[in-house]
Each structure stands twice: as C-alpha cells, then as structure tokens.
Specification:
Structural class of chain A: alpha/beta
CATH superfamily of chain B: MetI-like
CATH architecture of chain B: Orthogonal Bundle
CATH topology of the largest domain in chain A: D-Maltodextrin-Binding Protein, domain 2
Shape of chain B: globular
Shape of chain A: globular
Number of helices of chain A: 14
Subcellular location (chain B): Cell inner membrane; Cell membrane
Helix content of chain B: 55-70%
Largest sheet of chain A: 6 strands, mixed
Protein name (chain B): Amino acid ABC transporter permease
Order of helices and strands of chain A: HHEEEHEHEHEEEEHEHEHEEHHHHHH
Strand content of chain B: under 5%
Oligomer: heterodimer
CATH class of the largest domain in chain A: Alpha Beta
CATH class of chain B: Mainly Alpha
Order of helices and strands of chain B: HHHHHHHHHHHHHH
Family (chain B): Belongs to the binding-protein-dependent transport system permease family. HisMQ subfamily.
CATH architecture of the largest domain in chain A: 3-Layer(aba) Sandwich
Radius of gyration of chain B: 27 Å
CATH topology of chain B: MetI-like fold
Number of domains of chain B: 1
GO molecular function, one term (chain B): transmembrane transporter activity
Organism (chain B): Pseudomonas graminis
Strand content of chain A: 15-25%
Largest interface: A-B, 39 and 36 residues
CATH superfamily of the largest domain in chain A: Periplasmic binding protein-like II
Distance between the termini of chain B: 60 Å
Number of strands of chain A: 13
Largest sheet of chain B: none
C-alpha cells in the first residue's frame, strides 16, 4: 500500500519529463477492444485481495474487480490477463502501458492522483486504515486504553508515522518494536514480546489467521488513518476511466437493489422496480452511453457477483480472514459505500 | 626336536587403538576439550530431537487441506499440494511435460560427455551447446510446430530459477573470458573498454541492475513497446555475472608463469592459439573453485528477481504462503526452498571438487 519515496520521486520525475505519452480520449478503450482482453495489474500475493490458488488462478477482490470490468467491456469475465506486480513497479507498469488497469490495493491519495500520469477513477474497492490487533487477555476494548503498550510495527511503512501521530494526538505513551516482515511481527505478538500489533486492518485479519490460536486475539474497533484502496488507470482516456468507475458503482447498486448472481437474469426480465430496470438495461440506454452493451450490468453481476458477494467470497466470514463489513458496508447498512444512481 | 611356536600377537592396548582411544585423543584430550565436547553434545541434544519431531515424527504427511494438519509438527501437506507450483510456476498443467522433456533432453544430451571412451567429445559438446538452447527455447516458449505459446509471465518456480541460472552462466562464461582477455590486452582501446565495462558492472549491485531493467527501462521506451520482462532480467544477469567471471579468469591468467607465455610465443603461435591452446586451458583449470563459487552465487542470486515480480522458487513459496487457505505455513515453505537450494548448491560444489581432481596434473603445491 505504501510506496518508497524514492520510487515516487523517480516516477514523478519521469512523468514530468513527459516520457509517458498521453493517449487521446477513447484510444485506450479502442486498443483494449482490439486486443480482446484487459491486462490487469494485481499484487504479488495479498490474502483476500489477489493471491493465486493451487491451480494458479488469481483469487481475491482486486482480481474480481478486473473480471467485472472485463465482463462489462466484453461480456466475458475470463477475458482478463493478470500481471503480478510488486509495490515498486506497479505505477511504471501502468505508465508504460504494460497494464490497462491497476487493481492492487493502492491507496488513493492526492499526490498519486495529480502527479504521476495516473488517475483514480473514483471507485473505492475497500476502505482500509491502520488498526490494532491485541491479545484478548489484555482486556483492552479500545485503542485509547493502550497507554504504555509495546507495539509491533512493520518497518518502513507509513504505519509508523500514523501510529506516532495518533499516540501523540491522544497524549499516550508507547514503545515501538519494528520488524522487517509481517511474519516476524506476528511471531512476536504470539510470543508476547509486544502487546499489540499494528498494520492496515485488512492485513491484521490475515495476520490473525496466521496465529496458532486466532480466537485469542481481537482487532480493536479504532481505525486511525484513511486508506481508501481502489483501481487506477492511466490518464488520457476519459471513456475508459468512466467505465471503470461505473463498473464499481454498478456492483454497489446491484447489491443495494438486492440483485445477485443468482437472481440477476430473472430480475432483468421481470423486474417491476424502475431503478433495477434501468440498472439492468431493461429500460433506457445507459449501457450504450458508456460505450458498453445494454446488458453490461447483467453480465457483470452474473459472472462476478455484486459487491457484497465479492466481499463475502474473498474477505468475509466464510473465508479464513473473517473480515467484518464495517466501513465497507453499504451506506444504508451502516457503512460508507455509496454509489450514484444509474439513470 | 622341539619346534618353537610364537605366541600370537597381543592386541594393541585399547588406550591407543579403537574408538575409545580415538575419542580420548580427539574429544577428551584435555579438560578444555572435554568441556567443549560436553557442551557440543548438550547443544545437539537441545536442537536435534525437537527438530526431528517437528520435521518427521510429529509432522503431517497426508491430506489435502490445512484442516488435515492436526498434529503439532510441520504441515508438509502444504508442500505436497503446491508442489507443482513450486516446480513449474503457473506453467499450464497440461503442458508441463514440455518442461520435463527439456530437462530430460539436457540430462540425456550431457550424459555422453561423461563417458570416457566417447570419441570426438569436443565436437559433440560444442554442437550440443549450440543446438540445445534453441530446442529448449522452442519447447518452453512454444509458438511454433503446433506447440501452444506459453508467455514467460507464466514461467515460475524451480524451472524459472534454473532457466535464469543456466542462461546466466552460459552467457556470462564466454563473455567473461573475452573480457578477461581484453583486460590483459596490449591494445589500449580494448583494454580501456573492458576495464570500464567490468568496473561499471561490478560497481552496482545486482538488485539495482534488475530494478533498472524492469522499472526504469520501460519509461524510456515508447508507449506500448515492451520487451519481455524475463529477457530484460536475463540480459542484466548475464552482463553482471560476466564482469565477475572476467575477474576470476584474469586471476587465473595472472597465476600462469611468464615463461608459459614466452614459450608459447617462441613456438610461433599467434595470439588466439597462444591463448586458446596454452594459457586458457591452464588458467581455467586453476580457477575452477572461483568459477564454481560464481556459479553458486548466481544460482542463489536468482531469487533477487523477486524485486521485479518474477516468481522463482523462493518467490513462489512466499506467494503460496500468502494464500488465505494456507496462512501460517511460511516456515514449511521456506524450509522446503532451503532444502532444494542446498541440494543444488551442494551438488555443484561436489562436482567442482571432482573436476579439480580429474584435471589435476600435478601442479598442486
């Protein structure tokens, strides 16, 4: 999620020098339609977001988002090829045109949006933020009670800064112990070297499932920083970034309307709800306005599922990660996932 | 007449012969040795039994999911389930026979070189060196003769490690020898060029070379023009390693007495024959340990390709351990990777010792 400062400087310098060509509006979409698949950049292994399974198929919510875009553009969710990228090379891959869309747990920030020849279409796949994982024996219910605690942090991440800001703002004392890898810090939490472990919340759940007895550890309710993770595309093709944005919104709208992969075809034929009819293309011409087919949402939901289904399949209670919806619930269910309407 | 019969020899006293004596001499010869021995035994007792019970006795060998790992020890089920991935990466399952065939061809192709009575070994060896890489490339990459194309982004695991290591060495050895000759050349232009090349590539870490090839290079190419990531990495590895090989070979050439150069010249041999027939055969033989050292270092360095998102053996293991279904299995994965690396590196070092003995012509001091 975090990027080395130096890489940022290099990439920014390259972008400033104008080394990345700027395509004309629609050119990217045309190129994608011509080659017949979407090249999607994902992480090199992050549980629940993008990680290959035993057969080599990439699983996770980031990968599924790319499949959804493919389903919208081609009507076929399998027309996507994945490039596994590490944090350092992800933006270069996008700038050089090696990939069409970067869906790799990338935090949406102003500097990334403004200065690197990239643009965040605006859909947030997952609202993340720094949190704490504590041994339940401590009896701590809130991060505010962590005065004097020993905290395991992964070195070189912005988490370090976030934690120090938070503790200073709340006038609490703490002792940091920094580790190089997440495996090491998980082991130290288990052996009792530190009281709590801090990282992005999505990671904390993965860390917890690594421990010998995950039930003995709780993720504290506080989120002390904002890390909205979403897809990124190259600047210069408004048509394509609009499609990416609206695929995301369609996933949310489908969940909100109760349209799932199981009932989507029946709903498309026989729905009485005008909102659903517009969403699924039974009424109006909203798909063609986006330069897609009329039934694009039907294809997306049928082949990939709505946002809720994607979340449950990759991150939810049925998976080893057991992440609660929290902020990622719909706006009318206590979360902040809100999509503008299709009309 | 009485015949004198000798009594049979008495056995040597147990104090100077046999296991007890050996132990007395080597392990308990002084109080400090005794103390060290006891301490070492204590350490072994501390480490080995728990290790054995973790790795073997308490380990889980059968099953298909993480839930089958009920015993306290290692969960080798993880390795069994992901073995294909560790070996071939994401190479399509149905096409993995092509990788196997490539390896078998290498083994079968090299085998005759080890038969002592085989005639025309040099010609056979050279033609193998030229033909095999082409065959291997088409087998692995496909795209011709009705073989499906497998993009290099799908290559991975041990296969990728071996590809990088063998191509790296096969490219770096000849280039390194040429550079070493160039550095000792009497022509200033060539000498300066070679020195600059060697010092430049030795002056940067491999990780930087890989990073530049993968992250910076695409920025300088026109948009939409990409060359293969693996190819970029291979070129980087070859250039980098050739600088090291050059210095090792140069060391060998310096060890050859001046008389050899002069004798070769006195026989009327030209530069290339002087080097090829007299100097290099002796120099290369001298530096076998150094060369093998470079080879082993390269083999282990292949795991640095993690920085550019290629999935060699170690990176495949790391990635498989990130699968939510197998979280917490990192230890087993790393132990497995270490074992595979050790087998290869140990094999190489034994082979180099064998080579040294075989090529020994009595120059050892």
């Amino acid at each position: 999620m975090k990027m080395l400062k130096s890489t940022l400087a290099v990439v920014a310098a390259a972008a400033a020098l104008g080394l990345t060509g700027f395509a004309q509006a629609g050119a990217k979409l045309d190129a994608i339609q011509k080659k017949g698949f979407i090249q999607c950049g994902v992480s090199d292994g992050l549980p629940g977001f993008s990680v290959p399974d035993a057969s080599g198929k990439i699983q996770g919510i980031d990968a599924d988002f790319c499949r959804a875009v493919a389903a919208a553009v081609f009507g076929d969710a399998t027309k996507v090829k994945f490039s596994q990228l590490n944090a350092k090379e992800r933006f270069t891959a996008l700038q050089s045109g090696e990939i069409d869309i970067l869906s790799r747990n990338t935090t949406w920030t102003s500097s990334r949006d403004a200065s690197m020849g990239l643009v965040f279409p605006g859909f947030v796949t997952y609202y993340d933020g720094v949190g704490f994982l504590a041994n339940s024996k401590l009896g701590v219910k809130s991060a505010k009670e962590l005065d004097g605690a020993t905290i395991c942090i992964q070195a070189g991440t912005t988490t370090e800064l976030n934690v120090s800001d938070y503790f200073r703002a709340n006038n609490l004392k703490y002792t940091p112990i920094t580790f190089d890898t997440s495996d090491e810090s998980a082991k130290s939490l288990e052996s009792g070297r530190c009281d709590v472990l801090t990282s992005d919340k999505s990671q904390l759940y993965a860390q917890r499932s690594k421990l010998a007895s995950p039930k003995d550890y709780v993720v504290l309710p506080e989120t002390i920083s904002k890390e909205p993770l979403g897809p990124v595309v190259a600047r210069g093709d408004e048509d394509f970034s609009t499609i990416v944005r609206w695929v995301g919104y369609a996933l949310l709208n489908a969940e909100e309307a109760g349209v799932t992969s199981k009932n989507v075809e029946a709903e498309a034929k026989s729905t009485k709800n005008p909102d659903v009819a517009r969403l699924l293309g039974a009424d109006g011409d909203y798909g063609t306005q986006l330069k897609l087919k009329k039934d694009w949402v039907v294809q997306v939901v049928k082949q990939v599922g709505n946002y809720g289904e994607m979340f449950e399949k990759n991150l939810g209670a049925g998976t080893p990660l057991e992440i609660a919806r929290g902020q990622n619930a719909l706006w009318n269910a206590g979360g902040i996932q809100y999509a503008p309407p299709v009309r | 007449m009485t015949s004198h019969t000798f009594k049979p020899d008495m056995p040597p006293p147990s104090k100077v012969f046999g296991p007890v004596a050996w132990m007395r001499q080597n392990l308990f010869s002084s109080w400090i040795n005794t103390l060290l021995t006891l301490f070492a035994i204590y350490l072994i007792w501390l480490v080995v039994p728990p290790l054995l019970s973790w790795a073997i006795f308490d380990a889980n060998w059968v099953g298909t999911t993480r839930a089958d790992c009920t015993k306290a020890g290692a969960c080798w089920v993880f390795i069994e389930q992901r073995f294909g991935q560790f070996m071939y990466g994401y190479y399509p399952q149905a096409l993995r026979w092509r990788v196997d065939l490539t390896v078998w061809l290498a083994i079968i192709g090299v085998a005759p070189l080890f038969i002592k009575v085989m005639p025309r070994k040099a010609i056979y060896g050279l033609s193998f060196l030229f033909i095999y890489p082409i065959v291997a490339y088409f087998l692995l990459h496909g795209g011709v003769f009705g073989l499906d194309q497998v993009a290099t982004s799908q290559w991975g695991g041990l296969m990728l490690t071996l590809v990088i290591a063998t191509v790296g060495i096969a490219g770096a050895l000849p280039l390194g020898v040429v550079l070493a000759l160039g550095r000792r050349s009497e022509m200033p232009a060539i000498r300066v060029m070679c020195v600059t090349f060697i010092e430049f590539w030795r002056g940067v870490p491999l990780i930087t070379v890989l990073f530049m090839s993968s992250v910076m290079l695409p920025l300088f190419l026109p948009e939409g023009m990409n060359f293969d990531k693996l190819l970029r990495a291979l070129i980087g590895v070859i250039l980098f390693q050739s600088a090291y090989v050059a210095e090792v070979v140069r060391g060998g050439m310096q060890a050859i007495p001046k008389g050899q150069y002069e004798a070769a010249a006195a026989m009327g041999l030209g530069y290339w024959r002087r080097m090829g027939l007299v100097i290099l055969p002796q120099a290369l033989k001298l530096v076998i340990p150094g060369l093998v050292n470079t080879v082993i270092a390269l083999f282990k360095d292949t795991s640095l390709v993690i920085i550019i998102g290629l999935f060699d053996l170690l990176n495949s293991v790391k990635q498989a351990a990130a699968d939510p279904k197998w979280l917490g299995m990192a230890t087993e994965g790393y132990v497995f990777a270490a074992l595979v690396f050790w087998i290869f590196c140990f094999g190489m070092s034994r082979y180099s010792m064998h080579l040294e003995r075989k090529l020994d012509t009595g120059h050892k001091r």
